[in-house]
């Protein structure tokens, strides 16, 4: 027990004093959180910029209250030079140029940005329809459209990225921690030195697991703490605490990956590369950074085999989607099973020494 | 009462490389025993087999009457090992290192601090291991190997890479350890180190032990020439040849050297003529023993 405690202390001190490790396991993912959470905080479309040449009835004769509403999405500037205005559209400085000849409202747009082009043409199509209705004397239309999102109103970007980035941070911390401890200690022959002491292998592994779990829980606390700041506005759902067993199981799964990587790598540099090549693609394929909804089917199949996918999915379910604890039992089971199988393989490949 | 270490005809092959090729020796309690040889002689592998880090392909090893292989946790508290590389926990201070090692053996922090003091690192207790000089790191490494008071200590090339001053300091420390009744087994590729420290040495080359015995006995057994040098001009060369017909006489601008098997009459004759200016007398060394045994110059 004393060796477990002292080895844990030694590992924890070694980690805390390693600025690079602290940066990459805590601050770096946190930077992404701040970036994503801040950048995409209000996911409204930017105003479309339109140049108006000559008089355009649907714009000019719009009622004052409708005009105010329109100003929220459309920024209209008048221009006298038609060629110059077209050139600006071509260069992408404005989104469209609009002019009217007789009954035709002509919108010139560039296909370079299809989203903006779609927005601006859609907008004018609706303006023209409204104008037509008014001209036909229809006061109350038969159909009105009322868009409504499936998630409740609080499902902001921060709700999506917090569990995703936290999962990535935990994966990085646990994988690198295990791989680098194993390889560095073998490389400096510290592992051999420990083998010559009466220390039990269980104490050694236990210390690594304990320190990694502590790091993962600290990462969680920091992430939730920052994301819950009013500026970012994370709102946790009732069963968020169920994410803790998920995080524990996830940490074990990534420790086992790290141990496996550590069994193959001969130098700390190689371990670093292997761990990077494992964790980073996995983060992309597991929906840590962005949803996989539009990904091709085979990619989704691949992602099912990745532990990070299940960790992130499970965390999203209980942290922000408001699922009950029982809903994430499959993810929990998969993570534990993954950890058991990969640890067993790593144990078989374990070497105290390089030779 | 059996010897502390009994090694009987151990062999360790790596493919075609015979790293250890039939080595046998015994180390008595309280002895300072050295395994001497150039790099690649098989010293480290021999030590690793005795420590229980490797299994010999054949032959037997007994340490305190027990087999060190497979990992014998009953035996480990009785031995202390200092490895060739300085193996420390990353980013821990000297004090934290030795405290960590101490706790692995259930030894108190107070004892650990005393050990740090004894190797002269008390003022470096707060420095990280990475910041220590080569000699300091080596002393810390030895302190960590000794902190649990082992009866048997293994030191693998403890002074390699140290400057002469640091080497001398370390020698004093090693003598002190041995004088406190611990059995010490040391490998080295420095012949002078073995000569200075060891009660008995085994000279190893290409996986075999060529010769074993106290350094002085090995050197005496050579029946080698003693080289007596004086300042050039203290005695004319021609006169020296005349005086000592059985000796080899050579001279250069700096000194006159007389190599002889009977140094006493030569020294007496030189003294008689007042020709002792700049006198130096060099006997044979283990280097000469190695040369005789292998037929080649010693290269560490």
TrEMBL record, chain A:
Subcellular compartments: Cell membrane; Membrane
The keyword Transmembrane helix belongs to this UniProt entry's keyword annotation: yes
UniProt cross-references to InterPro entries, sorted A to Z: ABC-2_transporter, ABC2_TM, ABC2_TM_bact-type, ABC_2_transport
Membrane topology summary: Multi-pass membrane protein
Membrane-crossing residue ranges in chain numbering: 21-40, 165-185, 205-232, 238-261, 273-292, 328-350
One Pfam family linked to the record: ABC2_membrane_3
Domain ABC transmembrane type-2: 117-353
The keyword Transport belongs to this UniProt entry's keyword annotation: yes
UniProt entry keywords in alphabetical sequence: Antibiotic resistance, Cell membrane, Membrane, Transmembrane, Transmembrane helix, Transport
Recorded family membership: Belongs to the ABC-2 integral membrane protein family.
Protein name: Transport permease protein
Organism name: Luedemannella flava
Species classification: Bacteria, Bacillati, Actinomycetota, Actinomycetes, Micromonosporales
């Amino acid at each position: 027990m004393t060796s477990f405690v002292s080895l844990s202390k030694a590992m924890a001190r070694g980690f805390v004093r390693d600025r690079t490790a602290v940066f990459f396991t805590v601050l770096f993912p946190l930077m992404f959180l701040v970036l994503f959470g801040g950048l995409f905080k209000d996911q409204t479309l930017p105003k479309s910029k339109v140049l108006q040449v000559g008089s355009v009835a649907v714009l000019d004769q719009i009622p004052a209250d409708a005009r105010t509403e329109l100003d929220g999405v459309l920024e209209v500037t008048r221009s006298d030079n038609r060629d110059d205005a077209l050139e600006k559209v071509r260069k992408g400085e404005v989104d469209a140029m609009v002019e009217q000849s007789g009954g035709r409202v002509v919108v010139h747009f560039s296909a370079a940005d299809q989203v903006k082009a779609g927005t601006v043409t859609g907008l004018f199509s609706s303006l023209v329809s409204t104008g037509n209705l008014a001209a036909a004397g229809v006061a109350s239309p038969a159909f009105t459209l009322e868009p409504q999102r499936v998630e409740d109103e609080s499902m902001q970007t921060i709700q999506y990225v917090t569990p995703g980035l936290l999962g990535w941070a935990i994966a990085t911390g646990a994988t690198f921690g295990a791989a680098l401890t194993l390889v560095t200690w073998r490389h400096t022959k510290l592992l051999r030195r420990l083998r010559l002491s009466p220390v039990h292998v269980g104490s050694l592994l236990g210390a690594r697991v304990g320190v990694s779990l502590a790091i993962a829980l600290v990462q969680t606390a920091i992430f939730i703490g920052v994301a819950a700041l009013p500026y970012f506005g994370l709102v946790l759902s009732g069963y968020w605490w169920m994410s803790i067993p998920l995080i524990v199981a996830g940490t074990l799964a990534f420790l086992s990956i790290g141990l496996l990587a550590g069994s193959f790598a001969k130098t700390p540099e190689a371990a670093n590369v292997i761990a990077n090549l494992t964790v980073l693609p996995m983060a992309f394929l597991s929906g840590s950074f962005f949803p996989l909804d539009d990904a091709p089917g085979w990619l989704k199949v691949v992602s099912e085999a990745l532990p990070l996918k299940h960790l992130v999915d499970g965390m999203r379910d209980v942290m922000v989607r408001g699922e009950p604890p029982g809903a994430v039992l499959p993810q929990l089971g998969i993570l534990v099973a993954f950890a058991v199988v990969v640890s067993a393989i790593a144990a078989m490949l374990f070497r105290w020494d390089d030779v | 009462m059996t010897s502390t270490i009994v090694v009987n005809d151990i062999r360790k092959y790596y493919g075609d490389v015979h790293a250890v090729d039939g080595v046998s020796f015994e180390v008595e309690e309280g002895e300072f025993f050295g395994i001497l040889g150039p790099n690649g002689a098989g010293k480290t592998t021999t030590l690793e087999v005795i420590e229980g880090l490797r299994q010999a392909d054949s032959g037997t090893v007994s340490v305190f009457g027990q087999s060190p292989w497979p990992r014998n946790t009953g035996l480990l508290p009785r031995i202390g090992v200092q490895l060739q590389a300085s193996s420390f926990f990353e980013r821990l201070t000297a004090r934290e290192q030795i405290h960590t090692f101490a706790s692995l053996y259930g030894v108190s922090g107070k004892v650990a601090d005393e050990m740090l003091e004894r190797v002269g690192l008390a003022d470096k207790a707060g420095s990280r291991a990475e910041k220590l000089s080569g000699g300091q790191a080596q002393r810390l490494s030895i302190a960590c190997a000794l902190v649990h008071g082992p009866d048997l200590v293994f030191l693998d090339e403890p002074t390699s890479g140290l400057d002469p001053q640091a080497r001398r300091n370390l020698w004093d420390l090693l003598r002190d350890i041995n004088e406190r009744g611990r059995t010490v087994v040391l490998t080295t590729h420095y012949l002078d180190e073995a000569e200075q420290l060891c009660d008995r040495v085994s000279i190893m080359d290409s996986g075999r032990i060529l010769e074993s015995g106290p350094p002085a006995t090995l050197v005496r057994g050579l029946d080698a020439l003693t080289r007596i040098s004086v300042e050039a001009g203290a005695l004319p060369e021609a006169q020296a040849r005349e005086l000592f017909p059985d000796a080899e006489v050579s001279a250069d601008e700096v000194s006159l050297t007389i190599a002889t098997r009977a140094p006493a009459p030569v020294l007496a004759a030189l003294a008689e003529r007042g020709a002792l200016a700049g006198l130096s007398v060099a006997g044979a060394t283990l280097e000469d023993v190695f040369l005789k045994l292998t037929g080649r110059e010693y290269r560490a």
